[in-house]
Amino acid sequence: SQYHKLFKDIPTEESVLKVCSCALQRDILIQGRLYISPNWLCFYANLFGKDIKVVIPVVSVQLIKKHKTARLLPNGLAITTNASRKYIFVSLISRDSVYDVLRRVCTHLQVSSKKSLSLKELTEEPDAVSL
Q1: 3-class DSSP state for residue 11?
Q2: Structural domain of residue 25, as residue ranges?
Q3: pLDDT tens by residue, 83-128
Q4: pTM (predicted TM-score)
Q5: Distance of CA 65 to the CA centre of its chain
Q6: How many domains does the chain have?
Q7: Is residue 123 part of a domain?
Q8: Is residue 122 part of a domain?
Q9: Nearest-angstrom CA–CA distance, 118 and 64
């Protein structure tokens, strides 16, 4: 219910699959929570009394890549959308379990390496149109 109080535009029938504590990497790290549902990735934080919300439709996700914080700690995920926006979530306690949930939710992506998911390639030629 807290999910729907925070994100009023998300339909009430949308159920949360996973909630995890993490930080959004910007100029500073913004500590908050990532909510994963079948159609939305939502991040919420309250920084100095100001609400910070990021809402990413699952269908807009083009790439999910495992990320190392400071090139050392394997605790982050980088998510790129079709609008070329990149979000880096770090300080994930269990990055691999979050990655697995995202892999199940983002069915339009395929495993492209051990560390990333990307858009599926077209497997068949589009039908030719005769003139």
Answers
A1: coil
A2: 2-110
A3: 889 999 999 999 999 999 999 999 888 887 767 778 765 444 444 4
A4: 0.85
A5: 10
A6: 1
A7: no
A8: no
A9: 7
